[in-house]
Amino acid sequence: MSDFDVLFLTKYGRKGASSRYRLLQYFPYFEEYGIHCSCKPLFSNEYLESLYATGERSIEAVINSYIRRIRDILNAQKYDVIVIEKELFPYIPAIFERLLSALNIPYIVDYDDAIFHNYDQSDRPIIRRLLGKKIDIVMREAEIVVVGNEYLASRAQQAGASQIKIIPTVIDLDRYPHVPPNENGTFTIGWIGSPTTANYVEQIAPALREVCNENDARVVLVGSGEVELPGVPHEVKTWSEETEIKNIVEFDVGIMPLEETPWERGKCGFKLIQYMGCGKPVVATPVGVNAEIAEDGHNGLHATTNNEWVTALDRLYKNRELAKTMGNRGRQRVEEQYSLTTVVPTWADILNKFSK
């Protein structure tokens, strides 16, 4: 097998969970296949840290990032293929993706979110008019579209993508210890994410308050930033790549509440996979792929209404043996379907099609 070079144009560096788990974690394995990986993130780690800390985007930082991305595109011809995470430039028409096609520079595009809804369902008419079909163009111009679930695959098919591959977001199980939930003592209800998704937890605050007030339970949030959970005993922990798994290990149950909207249907349920990788039972809103990853009554429980959240969490609190059994089943499912080593060959086969 001949060596060849791939340029990965990711959105973020390692501090961006999507970039890290969808693409960056594969690099050491790709090298074993003779695939040489170069990565050029659009936004820096410093930009992402500032965004999470302030909730505001630095216009200067965005402009500098776009200029740097243009330079990267101008040097793209020396690579055998380009892998783009989602799009080259957010909120810019697909000019540069079309340019790559015109220059016969093949690219693969990867999605783990329904970012097309940022455009076609925008509150701003001008965005819908100018960019509503942008991602369809990006998908159609790509040699291969890689997606994390069926909802995203359906959109790629509608867009006229020539090839579509479904690859779930996966974890390296060698890094995730199997630690069953505690058999007794304080029950830790855990969540991991970012400030941009912490609102989902706030929406189930009444259920969390009821469960914690009636039982020896508490809530631990990793990466949420400040949250409004009145009356809920909770602890907020700062996220870091070095400590995220250690924090999950301390959970007794992992939760993933969501809303029922088209945007949520495009999510890939990655929190659930992380929880299950550590042997934790899960409770999730059964939206999109969540319903598949967390099988109700098998490796987790489904909850939508406040009463359903209370019932599910209370059930796992009172029946620790059930929690342990569900956690074991979840770990087994990750081993079979969501483990990095099971997916590496699929990605390698995709990239090897462009070996010269």
Automatic annotation (TrEMBL):
The keyword Glycosyltransferase belongs to this UniProt entry's keyword annotation: yes
GO molecular function: glycosyltransferase activity
Family annotation (CDD domains): GT4_PimA-like
Keywords attached to this entry: Glycosyltransferase, Transferase
Keyword RNA-binding appears in the UniProt entry: no
Coiled coil: none
Short name of any one Pfam family annotated for the protein: Glyco_trans_1_4
PANTHER family: COLANIC ACID BIOSYNTHESIS GLYCOSYLTRANSFERASE WCAL-RELATED (PTHR12526:SF640), GLYCOSYLTRANSFERASE (PTHR12526)
Protein's name in the database: Glycosyltransferase involved in cell wall bisynthesis
